[in-house]
């Protein structure tokens, strides 16, 4: 039924501009126009990290629900967790429109949204009123014109400590000038020191411990990645999200929007982000939970991400082209794979092909 509805609605959604179609989707979710998951997930899909229980490893990536409008609806739809944001301290409109472009033949999207956000106060008010079902992450960012971006991140942790189950620090968007400089180990080390100090102060004030994750860019050079990961591990980072959108266009066929400025997501990002994921898994010796993002649009690609080293997954662009039935298909594939190999837990699959992906990519 869900897939049939998507096939009927797809021509309408495709006839609308990307942002208009996205807003329509959010409004339908707000009004409850979606099919709820009725059966509980197979227990073999359950995962536990950071004292949080994920009913399945599939989450929705930041960017879909920037302002915390529909996290409960997404959990009811069948996601194992939801990450809202990126949320900036003060409201900001982001970059001028048009700023989102579909590359339909490549199952990809280019965006240069630029952290459009209603701001901390509005988002916190919504999250404060939610039912608190499922695992909720808050992706925090900095305002474009901020005089102190480190302070923006630190205050973000404090602002959402009472409603977030975990935090993702977004220092890898290509659409805020200079933001990716925070991935440089010197800047990163200072940022993490401030963030962990802020978390410690919150715990002393009575707040519960919350894990802090960092989302990295897939455009970090092979020679630079080890120093970035060494910085994260030296600071005892709780998790790493791999990866954000890419500014690279190698191997992408000529198309109407290929050269639009912004970050590319979707199918063309799969090999690049999965190889990076596998390399980080090996560098961290599988000891840090990794969230795999980038180009997941089938059960097979989801399984591959886990085999490359992801303990958890996030999807977004794949939903645009495959519809909500993608979530169900991923679960079926993971369960079928465990059935075939006699596994009792999806964690047994994690990293099985990390060496192959790290050394040879998708070849």
Describe the model.
The protein has 363 residues and is an alpha/beta fold. α6 (185-204) packs parallel to α7 and α8 runs parallel beside α9. The chain has a single domain (37-360), classed as Aldolase class I (TIM Barrel, Alpha-Beta Barrel). It has helices at 2-15, 18-30, 71-77, 120-128, 149-160, 185-204, 225-234, 270-283, 299-308, 317-322, 325-341, 354-360, and strands at residues 47-49, 52-54, 58-60, 81-87, 100-103, 108-111, 135-140, 166-170, 212-216, 239-242, 263-266, 290-293, 312-315. The strands form three sheets. The protein has an eight-stranded parallel β-barrel with strand order 3-4-7-8-9-10-12-13, surrounded by five helices. A three-stranded antiparallel sheet has the order 5-6-11, with no helix packed on it. The chain has a two-stranded antiparallel ribbon with strand order 1-2. β9, α7 (225-234) and β10 form a beta-alpha-beta unit. Helices cover 38% and strands 15% of the residues. The mean pLDDT is 94. The two termini are 37 Å apart.
């Amino acid at each position: 039924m869900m897939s049939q509805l998507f096939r009927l609605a797809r021509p309408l959604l495709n006839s609308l501009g990307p942002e208009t179609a996205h807003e329509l989707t959010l409004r339908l979710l707000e009004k409850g126009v979606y099919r709820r998951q009725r059966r509980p997930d197979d227990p073999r899909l359950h995962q536990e990290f950071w004292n949080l229980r994920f009913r399945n490893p599939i989450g929705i990536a930041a960017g879909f629900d920037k302002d915390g409008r529909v996290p409960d609806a997404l959990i009811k739809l069948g996601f194992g967790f939801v990450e809202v944001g990126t949320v900036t301290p003060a409201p900001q409109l982001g970059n001028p429109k048009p700023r989102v472009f579909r590359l339909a033949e490549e199952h990809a999207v280019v965006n240069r949204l630029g952290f459009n956000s209603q701001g901390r106060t509005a988002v916190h008010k919504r999250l404060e009123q939610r039912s608190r079902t499922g695992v909720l992450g808050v992706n925090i960012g900095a305002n474009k014109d901020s005089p102190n971006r480190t302070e923006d991140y630190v205050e973000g942790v404090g602002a959402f400590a009472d409603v977030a189950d975990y935090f993702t620090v977004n220092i890898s968007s290509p659409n805020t000038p200079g933001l990716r400089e925070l991935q440089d180990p010197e800047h990163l080390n200072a940022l993490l020191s401030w963030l962990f100090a802020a978390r410690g102060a919150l715990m002393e004030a009575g707040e519960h411990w919350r894990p802090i994750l960092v989302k990295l860019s897939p455009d970090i050079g092979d020679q630079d990645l080890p120093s970035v990961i060494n910085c994260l591990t030296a600071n005892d980072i709780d998790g790493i999200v791999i990866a954000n959108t890419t500014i690279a266009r190698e191997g992408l066929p000529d198309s109407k929007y290929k050269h639009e400025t912004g970050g590319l997501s979707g199918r063309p990002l799969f090999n690049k982000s999965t190889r990076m994921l596998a390399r980080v898994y090996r560098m961290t010796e599988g000891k840090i939970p990794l969230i795999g993002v980038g180009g997941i649009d089938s059960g097979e690609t989801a399984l591959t991400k886990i085999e490359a080293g992801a303990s958890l997954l996030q999807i977004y662009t794949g939903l645009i082209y495959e519809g909500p039935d993608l979530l169900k298909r991923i679960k079926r594939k993971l369960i079928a794979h465990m059935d075939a190999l006699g596994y009792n837990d999806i964690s047994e699959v994690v990293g099985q092909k990390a060496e192959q992906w790290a050394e040879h990519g998708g070849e």
